[in-house]
Amino acid sequence: MTDTTQTDTENRQCAAWGAVLSMSLCVALLLASEFMPVSLLTPMADGLGVSEGATGQAISISGLFALVASLMSTTVAGRVNRKSVLVGLTMLMLISLVIVAMAPNFAALITARAILGICIGGFWALATAVMMRLVPSHDVPRALSIMYGGQAIASAFAAPLGAWLGDIFGWRAVFWALTPLVAINLVWQLTVLPSLPARGRQNFGALVDVLSRPYFLRGLIAAMLSWGSAFTMFTYLRPFLEQFNGADVLTLSLLLLVLGLAGFVGTWVAGRFIGQRVAPLLKLPALVMGVITLGLLFTSGSILATGVLLAGWGMMNTALSVIFMTWMSQNVSDAPEAGGSLMVAAIQGSILLGAIWGGLLLDHLSITATFVGSVALSALAVILIGNGQNLLRPVNSPKHTGD
Questions:
Q1: Three-class secondary structure assignment of the chain
Q2: pLDDT surpassing 50 at residue 402
Q3: Among 5, 14, 38, 239, which has the highest number of CB atoms less than 10 A from its own CB?
């Protein structure tokens, strides 16, 4: 009997980690779909007959719809089983990719990005809460690091492969190539995700309650500044490398590969060492990425120096997600779906504003101004976070106090 019980427990644990891996693949495909245009910015702009700045801002349309979807997903979904919601969102991703691949004009691109934004917002709003249900609480940081390993995979291979394949076959072929992978992930989700009944009906009151907690609001603003800084720079990385370093397609692909591979290190380190002491780490990504972004402006004569700096940036970029989502899971554990919705809205809003901010600086000033604008946002994030203690839930209350 004991052996049978132990076997059943081990089978459940294996099934749970299989579900975590399916979520990780979904993250990889979501990130590839969302940010693939970064590596294809120049040819997409040429193919659709618009400027690079306008194309970069079109990318941010997904952020706008993701922002709205993240706030509404848990309320609109109501009592729908969360597995069904996740599968439906994956189907939306597939539809979006097909539209982008066939896009005859700029309007079609915007439409596809809007559909993708709904998928992104809904998925990320539920992702952390789902992880908290799949594995025990002490395994949540590890599960999150595995899930965000999908982000590292996308960062490592999507951008360089996109640039390389786009140069050979055209940018549309790159998006067609993603569609069978999404279809495979859809089948995998149907197979390994357990039934996840909704735990009560969510409403906007829950969002307001979480948002009214001073420590969480400060953390939300810090997250927005951190991600806003990152995507002010990252969205326009290709034009920067082309202008500052004279990077051709091969060099660009290699530099993006270095950046992405470093993301695996960031994800692994963050998942292994965060534990319960997340406060000191909250400002680290913004601080390191801000310094690196500034340093890139002085490496125009050296591809090697640029590659080293991009490796550091890539490591911190993936660590950023693990650090802040672990912070959220530990400090809003009583309302993970509401906290997740607000976090995703903040992140997607910052991606939207960062892309717009960077695009305006690029079109009206220069790529240097875009990078300086990124550094300014990271500096504000570091100042707000301080030592991180003011972003933690007060220990004398399981929910919140009016600190």
A1: CHHHHHHHHHHHHHHHHHHHHHHHHHHHHHHHHHHHHHHCHHHHHHHHCCCHHHHHHHHCHHHHHHHHHHHHHHHHCCCCCHHHHHHHHHHHHHHHHHHHHHCCCHHHHHHHHHHHHHHHHHHHHHHHHHHHHHCCHHHHHHHHHHHCHHHHHHHHHHHHHHHHHHHHHCHHHHHHHHHHHHHHHHHHHHHHCCCCCCCCCCCHHHHHHHHCCHHHHHHHHHHHHHHHHHHHHHCCHHHHHHHHCCCCHHHHHHHHHHHHHHHHHHHHHHHHHCCCCCHHHCCHHHHHHHHHHHHHCCCCCCHHHHHHHHHHHHHHHHHHHHHHHHHHHHHCCCCHHHHHHHHHHHHHHHHHHHHHHHHHHHHHCCHHHHHHHHHHHHHHHHHHHCCCHHHCCCCCCCCCCCC
A2: no
A3: 38
